[in-house]
Amino acid sequence: MARAITIGLAAFAAFSCVSLDPGSFLPESGYYYGVGAGPSAAEAAEAARRDLISSALTSSRDRLGTRGARIDISAEAARAFKLPKLRPYAQKKAVGSVSVAYRMKTADWDELEGKREAEVRADIAPRILALKADSSRPLAERMLEAGQLLERLRQEGLTELLTEEGSGAPLVSLAIESICREQTSGLTFTVHPQGGFIGGDSAFTVQVATRDGKRPGSLPLRAEWKAKDVE
Q1: Is 70 within 8 Å of 7 (Cβ atoms)?
Q2: CA–CA distance, 103 with 99 (Å, rounded to integer)
Q3: What is the residue-averaged pLDDT of the chain?
Q4: How far apart are CA 153 and CA 61, in angstroms?
Q5: Which of 54, 70, 103, 170 is the Cys-Cys partner for 31 at CB 3.0 to 4.6 Å?
Q6: How much is the pTM?
Q7: DSSP string covering 80-106, please?
């Protein structure tokens, strides 16, 4: 009899947990949570999964002592995460709307995320070494590849998380930025606008010279300047 009551209470607790309003439960320590809403259960589930990933990435970053804005990833990037099958921790249905909450143990997340970071690091590390060592390619090609690497880190939510191997290693993103600064430090730009004046519709060329005298290739440039007390 006691065993039957215990089983009944457990079943009731599980059912009650699933039928909770996602906005009404109190988060427990040791878990990451994600809440999403949408016109269908599938859309709400996708939004909740993405919110859980963003929350976990942000908390992981904060644990490193580098606090900042919430890490938000795209829906496409979220779908690429290899998470275990998630069951709703809480959900609520209304007319034309469904709300869902997921949760995942922090230990499970840390294990999976450690493997993902190792895969990304193994893929990016050789390309970073090539950026440092291979000066035979035009500077423009190297800088564009550095930009692609930084964009990949941003899309995967790893800009402020992925470190190089070794204790106390710096962030991979900072290593890439350091390479860019070092390799562009000797650039000089020469501008010769016709008549010596740059108007709003002026067309002019910019000559770029590198420190080693090699052709830099086609570089995308953006120039900004201010003139004090002048309209």
Answers
A1: no
A2: 14
A3: 84
A4: 13
A5: 103
A6: 0.75
A7: TS-PPPP--SEEEEETTEEEEEEEEEH
Could you tell me the sign of the dihedral formed by the alpha carbons of 13, 15, 20, 22, in that order? positive
DSSP 195: G
Give the 3-state secondary structure of residue 171.
strand
Strand (E) or helix (H) holding 116: helix 106-133
The token pair at 192 is 């010769």
Q: Indicate the SS3 state at residue 112.
A: helix
Orientation of helix 41-63 relative to helix 106-133, angle to 10°? 70
Which residues, 6 or more positions from 77, have their beta carbon under 8 angstroms from its beta carbon? 155, 156, 157
Amino acid at 139: L
* Whole-number Å distance between alpha carbons of 144 and 15: 53
Q: What is the DSSP letter of 69?
A: S
pLDDT at 36 over 60: yes
Strands (E), 97-210: 97-105, 188-191, 206-209
Q: Which pair of tokens denotes residue 200?
A: 């709003």
User: For position 198, what pLDDT does the model report?
Assistant: 78
Yes or no: say if 68 and 160 are a contact pair by the CB < 8 Å rule: yes
**Which H or E run contains 37?**
strand 31-38
Please state, in angstroms and rounded to a whole number, the distance separating the CA atoms of residues 120 and 108: 19
Query: How crowded is the C-beta side of 188, counted as CA atoms within 13 Å?
Result: 7
Tell me: the pLDDT tens digits for 66-107? 788 999 999 999 999 999 999 999 999 988 899 999 999 999
Output the pLDDT for position 10. 35
